[in-house]
Amino acid sequence: HVQLVESGGGSVQAGGSLRLSCADSGLTFSTHCMGWFRQAPGKEREAIATLNRRVYRSGYSDSVKGRFTISQDNADSTIYLQMNLLKSEDTAMYYCAATHRGCNWSPSEYPYWGQGTQVTVS
């Protein structure tokens, strides 16, 4: 079931940028960690960025470190993923997720998920 709603996906040329947004469906004050995941055809779902809401600390996978940035809007708690220097390997369905537990890198530890937004890099 949909708990979060992602937007901002689309098609871009290699080297370009996109910013994804994740609208929290009432979980802002009860969740501990937000995460961005992606899944390409034939591959496992991969955690690429996490944000601890309580202390505002972020973490990144090696595949996106230095290119992607996770952040939170101070007013409405919207979660963003700024993606720069995009590569064809970044092509995937991107998902926003949330957990009441501390930040971790396993999809199974996140009970709340969005429906996904497609990112295609040519």
Structural account:
The chain has 122 residues and is mainly beta. The protein is built from no helices and eleven strands. Strands 1, 2, 3, 4, 5, 6, 7, 8, 9, 10 and 11 form an eleven-stranded mixed beta sheet that branches. The radius of gyration is 13 Å and the shape is globular. The model has no long low-confidence stretch (mean pLDDT 92).
**Main pleated sheet:** 11 strands, mixed
Mean pLDDT, to the nearest integer, reads 92
Helix content: under 10%
Helix/strand/pairing category: mainly beta
Number of strands: 11
Globally, the shape reads: globular
Percent range for β-strand residues: over 45%
Tally of alpha and pi helices? 0
Radius of gyration: 13 Å
Distance between the termini: 31 Å
Q: Detail the poorly predicted runs.
A: none
Question: What would you call the quaternary organization?
Answer: single chain
- The H/E string reads EEEEEEEEEEE
Topology:
Elements: E1 2-7, E2 10-12, E3 18-24, E4 33-39, E5 46-52, E6 57-60, E7 68-72, E8 79-83, E9 92-99, E10 112-114, E11 117-121
Parallel strand pairs: 1-10, 2-11
Antiparallel strand pairs: 1-3, 3-8, 4-5, 4-9, 5-6, 7-8, 9-10, 9-11
Descriptive terms for the model:
single chain; 122 residues; mainly beta; eleven-stranded mixed sheet
Give a quick rundown of the structure.
With 122 residues, this protein is mainly β. The protein has strands at residues 2-7, 10-12, 18-24, 33-39, 46-52, 57-60, 68-72, 79-83, 92-99, 112-114, 117-121. It is built from no helices and 11 strands.
